[in-house]
Design brief:
Blueprint: E1 2-7, E2 12-19, E3 23-31, H1 33-36, H2 44-66, E4 75-81, H3 85-102, E5 106-110, H4 111-117, E6 130-135, E7 140-147, E8 150-156, H5 162-172, H6 180-187, H7 212-225, H8 234-263, E9 267-271, H9 278-291, E10 294-296, H10 307-319
Parallel strand pairs: 1-4, 4-5, 6-9, 9-10
Antiparallel strand pairs: 1-2, 2-3, 6-7, 7-8
The structure holds 5'-O-[(R)-(carboxyoxy)(hydroxy)phosphoryl]adenosine and zinc ion (ZN).
């Protein structure tokens, strides 16, 4: 089954063609970073308008690069939530209009399920059951995954998501939006021994996270380091970025290890924008190797938002017979545990 996937939940327009027999045929992405950078964050209305401009040209692009025509498409999948209401509506109405015009089924996909299944696009895909750490701009969740649609939330952030904390700390350090990759870059030049930031909630039992205290601690450290002119020295910025990154990474590693022990599992999947972080990947690889387990990641291009993960997740469900009814519904908030299980197992 050849499925067109559309992702428009936030500030990236992602489009892809996934074939259940041949795999991923093509994908294209337009990042709106330049649209939002001057505001220091995503402006929802600007995001919606840009999705309107970019989605159809990207559909044409993926068809062309896959050597397919619209007549070959057998189903359409789009992100139905969670995300920004207006941005989701653009993808939903476009997907449904295309599917209607082509006379093919259409299905709204859960954005975090897309992230969660993105490692399945790799040659060496993880086998169920596993524990997934979902770390994006809006979510920090540990989930037990027994199959597609069989999700049990083990823990989540009680306040800021990990990516959100990266973005806010980056802003405090005068780095552009989105801040995660910039923190990673300058942390490389930081002195790991200079500051010791707290690891939030690791001494309490359970698998929930909280990053707002760490954010405040970082803000206070920045205030203490300011020079007479109110600026931070370049070395201070790098050292603070390093200490913050180390604290987030070791908190995530401790909770992943705890979740795996609790569930008696040895396979960890990590997905979402923060899973692109090199220090996190290295630390998780090391921790899992020690446990005799293994970590699976999406390819770097599929860690952050993209159309391929939506085409893939949609294809699994469409192939199992799931389709939308005639109403267009998007869900800015949507607990993943509400998703129905998939009958049969993925190919
Ligand atoms: O999954 P994603 O593209 O969008 C959401 O669904 O939210 O995640 C975006 C988040 C942003 O907060 C961004 O700063 C963070 O992922 N991020 C990173 C890195 N790359 C992206 N955080 C830390 N290190 C990175 N290399
Ligand atoms: Zn995302």
């Amino acid at each position: 089954m050849l499925v067109l996937g559309l992702e428009t939940s936030c500030d990236e327009t992602g489009v892809a063609l996934y074939d259940t027999e041949r795999g991923l045929l093509s994908h294209a992405l337009f990042s709106q970073v330049d649209v939002h950078v001057e505001y220091g964050g995503v402006v929802p209305e600007l995001a919606s308008r840009d999705h309107v401009r970019k989605t159809l040209p990207l559909v044409e692009e993926v068809l062309q690069s896959a050597g397919c025509s619209a007549a070959d498409i057998e189903a359409v999948a789009y992100t139905a939530g969670p995300g920004l209401l207006g941005a989701l509506m653009v993808g939903a109405t476009l997907a449904r209009a295309l599917a209607w015009g082509w006379g093919v089924p259409v299905l709204g996909v859960h954005h975090m399920e897309g992230h969660l299944l993105a490692p399945m696009l790799e040659e060496e895909a993880p086998a169920f059951p596993f524990v997934a750490l979902l770390v994006s701009g809006g979510h920090t969740q540990l989930v037990r995954v027994d199959g597609i649609g069989q999700y049990r939330l083990l823990g989540e952030s009680l306040d800021d998501a990990a990516g959100e904390a990266f973005d806010k700390v980056a802003k405090m350090l005068g780095l552009p939006y989105p801040g995660g990759p910039h923190i990673g870059r300058i942390a490389e030049r930081g002195d790991a021994g200079r500051f010791d930031f707290p690891r939030p909630m690791v001494n309490r039992p359970g698998l929930d996270f909280s990053f707002s205290g760490l954010k405040t601690f970082t803000m206070n450290t920045i205030a203490d380091c300011r020079q007479d002119d109110g600026e931070l020295s370049e070395q201070d910025r790098c050292d603070i970025a390093r200490a913050f990154e180390e604290a987030v990474v070791s908190t995530l590693v401790i909770k992943c290890r705890r979740a795996l022990e609790q569930e008696a599992l040895q396979t960890l999947v990590i997905a979402g924008g923060v899973s692109a972080n090199a220090r996190l990947r290295a630390a998780l690889d090391k921790a899992l190797a020690k446990m005799g387990g293994r970590v699976f990641y999406p390819a770097p291009a599929f860690c952050t938002d993209n159309g391929a993960m939506i085409a893939y997740a949609g294809a699994q469900r469409l192939q199992a017979g799931q389709v939308d009814d005639a109403d267009t519904r998007v869900r800015p908030r949507w607990p993943m545990e509400e998703l129905p299980p998939l009958s049969g197992s993925p190919p």
